[in-house]
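BUG: 3D viewer hangs when loading the predicted structure for this chain

Environment: internal workstation, default settings.
Expected: structure renders.
Actual: progress bar stalls at 90%.

Input used:
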Amino acid sequence: MTQRIQSRTMISTELQSSMRWGSPLETAKAAMILLHGRGGDAADMRALARLFESPGFAFIAPEAPGNTWYPFPFTAPLAQNEPYLSRSLDRVGRLLSELADAALAPGKLLLLGFSQGACLALEFSARNLDCCSGVVGLSGGLIG
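Structure tokens produced before the viewer hung:
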């Protein structure tokens, strides 16, 4: 069952609510945050997540405002993608914090991103080495 949920904390009017499916957070044994690519949306990540579905697994797919996490290519200087990049990285951090509040330790959390979402996932994990147990970047690289 797919649900739209609002995060417990008011995040930003620039970011929309996340799509969630799989096990309820209260009973999930692990969780994955899936980050879409430029021009994509949370629903696009559902088909990809089917490859990882298993009992006890929760999935959360946030949606970027205007379907882009930051405006310029990932090879542009970091400053050129601000403040959008920082806002998007903060969103990932808040989602991981909410999962930790739901008793999911970093060792039970995964980040997966496609294209621009892969760049965001890789950048977040490079800046926060203990954020999760794994990161998957499909067609992306570190930003800057």
